[in-house]
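User: My collaborator and I are trying to settle a disagreement about how two of our proteins should look. Neither of us wants to argue from intuition anymore, so we agreed to look at predicted structures for both before our next call. Could you fold the first one, then the second, and keep them clearly separated?

Assistant: That sounds like a sensible way to settle it. I'll keep them separate. The first protein:
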Amino acid sequence: MTVKGKRILLGLTGGIAAYKAAELARALGRAGCDVRVAMTEAATRFITPVTLQALTGQAVWTDLWDPRVADNMSHIELSRDRDLILVAPASADFMAKAAQGLADDLLTTLVLARRCPLMVAPAMNVEMWDNPATQRNLRTLRADGVVFAGPAAGDQACGETGMGRMLEPAAIVAEVEALFQPKSLAGKRVLVTAGPTEERIDPVRVITNTSSGKMGYAVARAAREAGAEVTLVSGPVALEAPAGVARVSVRSAQQMFDAVKAAVKGSDIFISVAAVADWKVKNSSRQKIKKANGRAPALQFEENPDILAWVAAQKDAPFCVGFAAESEKVEAHARAKRLKKGVPLIAANLAQTAMGADDNALTLYDDRGRHPLGRGPKLDQARKLVAHFAAMLNKAR
C-alpha cells in the first residue's frame, strides 16, 4: 500500500523547524497525497501561509473563527475528510496541550475533534525535550494512540546538540507510509541480515562482493512497517538503518554469525538476506602482503559457517526465510537450496540484475510452489515478501 490518494491535514506549530514543512508539503504532494494545511499563529511567524498555499495548491487555515466555513465549525469540517493529521513541527507547547485535551486555537481543536489518526513530529530544544513534563506528555500521548515520528539527535538552531531535532521531510514521509501499511506482523520479533561480508586477506585487503544491502534494508523497513520489532544485522554498506530498526554492524561472516546467535533467541522470524561469503582466507596475514617478484600470494580458503542452516536447525527455530541470488538456473538452485537448508520459504533472483540495483524481480518458493512477484522497487518487493510469509504464518496457526 502506498500513500497515493491519502488525505492529510498538515499542522504547523511555532518553531524554527517550520521551514522544513515547506519541503515536507512538497514531498507529500509528490507521493500523491492531498495536503491541507492548518497553522498556529506562532507558526506564521516562521513561515508564511502563502508559501504553504503555493506548495499545496489549497487554502491555508489559521483561524478557529474563519468565516469561510459557513457554520463556524472549522475544527470539525477541516478534518472529517482526512485520513491523517500530521503535526510537523510539533512544539513542546502543542504536546502539552494535546496531552491534556486543551483546545485554544484551530490546530489543537482540530486534534481534539478528530476521527482520524494523529502523527506528531516533535521539534524543540534538547532541554525542553528531556524535561520531565515533556516526557510525561510523551507517555500520555503514546498511551492515547498518538504516533510519533522522531525526534532525532543532532545540532540544533540554538547551538546546542542532542535530542529534539525534527526528522527530515523524507524520513517523515517514510513514517507516514509506514502508518498506512497493514500491521500483519504486529507483536512479532524479526531478525534480518543484510549486505555483504568482508573476509580479511591482510590488514588492508579483503574479499567481498557487490551486495549493496538495499534489499535487506528494504525487508527490515517493510517488517517494521508491518508492526514488528526488527533487529538488522548488517555488513558494511553505505545505508542508514530504517527508522525504528535496531542495527548491529558487522564486517566478517563470523561476526555476522556471532551477532545472529546473540540476537536470534526470542525471534519469531529470521530473514537471511545478506550475501554472506561462502569462504574466508585461512592463511590471512597480520601484515600487509608485499609483492614477491610477480608471484601471486598463495591464499588458502576454508568454509564460513552456514548461518541460515544453523538457525533453521535450532530447537524451536524461528520461521526462516532465505534468499538465493543466482547467476543461472535460478529456479533449480532456489528449490535445491530451500530443501538443503530446511526452510519454508526462499526468495530468489538473478544476481546480475539485482545486486546494487534499486529494483528487483523476486520469485518466492515454498511448499505450494512458485510465486513470482514481478519487477519493481526493492521496497515494494519487500512489502510483498512480508505479506506472503505473514499469510503463511497465519495459516500455520
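The second protein, kept apart from the first:
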Amino acid sequence: MTKRIVLVGGGHTHLQLVEAFGKRPLAGWTIVLVSPERIVAYSGMAPGVVAGHYRPDDLEIDLERLCAAHDTEFRRARVVGIDRNARRAGLEDGSSIRYDLLSLDVGSVPATAGVAGAAENALPLKPIGHFLGGLDAILGTPKPRIVVVGGGPAGVEVALALRHRLRHAGHGAALSLVAAGPILEDLPAGVRRYFRSLLAQRHVQLIENAPVSAIAADAVHLEDGREIASDLTLLATGAAPPAWLARTGLQLSNGFVAVHPTLQTLTDPDIFAAGDCAEIVGIPRPKAGVFAVRAGPPLAANLRARAERRPLQPWSPQKKYLAVLATGPKHAVAVRGRFFVTGRWVWFWKDRIDRNWVRRFRP
C-alpha cells in the first residue's frame, strides 16, 4: 500500500510543503492536503485590502489548483480530531482519512477568553475572507462607530488602514483602538512612540492598558467601567489555539501543540506541527507569520527524512526578525531588533515581497 503524508491546513508552511514535494516527489508516498477552504488569503496583505490598495482577490491562493499543479491530492474538509492508534484524522462529517505521517498547520483563532459577547457581537480578523465581507457591509452605513480591540501589530495596522480608507472616501466614522496593555508591547519603545503619535495625528482614539470585559451589539465594555459606543467591533486580539487541539491527546504548551525543534510533537514522532498552532518547547517566539514562512523548508526536510528513516535536523527560529507594519497610506515601518526605518520605499519593498509570495503559489 502506498504510504501517505496528510497535511492538515492550508497555512503558509504547508503551501511550501505542497511545492517542495511536488518539485521533488517522495518515492512510494502520496501527499494529501486537507483544508476546510479551497481559497486561502495571505494575511500579510490584509491591511492593504482594508486600506484600499489591493482587491480582495489579490491575496487569494487557490489550494485546489496549487495541489493539482504539484501532484498533490486536495480534500476539502475540516479535521476535528486525531485517532493515533488507528492513524486516522477525523473529519467534521464523521468520516476519517488514513495517514502514515501527519502535519498540522491550522493557525490560531482570536483570544477572547473572559470577554462576554465576543463571539456573538464582534468580527474577528480571521478568517480574512469573512472579515473583509463583514467590514464592507458596515462601511456602507453613514458615520459608523468602529472599535478595534487589540493593540498588537494586527490591531494597529487595521486601525490605520481603516482610517486611510475612510478618509479617502470622505467618511466621517469615529474610530477607536483599545489595547489591554501598551500597544506593540513586543516592539521597541521608539516604535511605540512613533505609532502613538501617528494614531493621534490620524484621529484614532487610543485607549491603552484597558482590558475588555464584554462586547455588546452597540458598545465595548472595559474592566474599569468605561463604555465605548460601537456599531462594529473588530477583534484583533492575541492568538489562541483552535479548540479541537485539546481533544487530540497531543501534549500542549499554552494550549498549542508542543513540538521538538525537529517540529515533531512531543507525543508522537509521526505527527508534526508548525505555524501559529505549534509551540517549540524551550524556544518561545511570538505568533508571527514570519515564523510560519521560515518553518517551511525545515518541516519539508524533516518530513522527508522521517519518511526515508533518516535522522532529523533541529530548527531554531531566529530571535531577531524583521517586522514590517503598514501605516495606512502606501507607507510602512520596518523593525528589526531595536532599530526601525520608515518611508514609502518600505511599503513598496513589502508590496513586492508580498506579491511575489502570492504569485509563487498561483500556478
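Some points you might bring to the call about the second protein. The CA atoms of residues 158 and 195 lie 13 Å apart. The mean pLDDT is 92.
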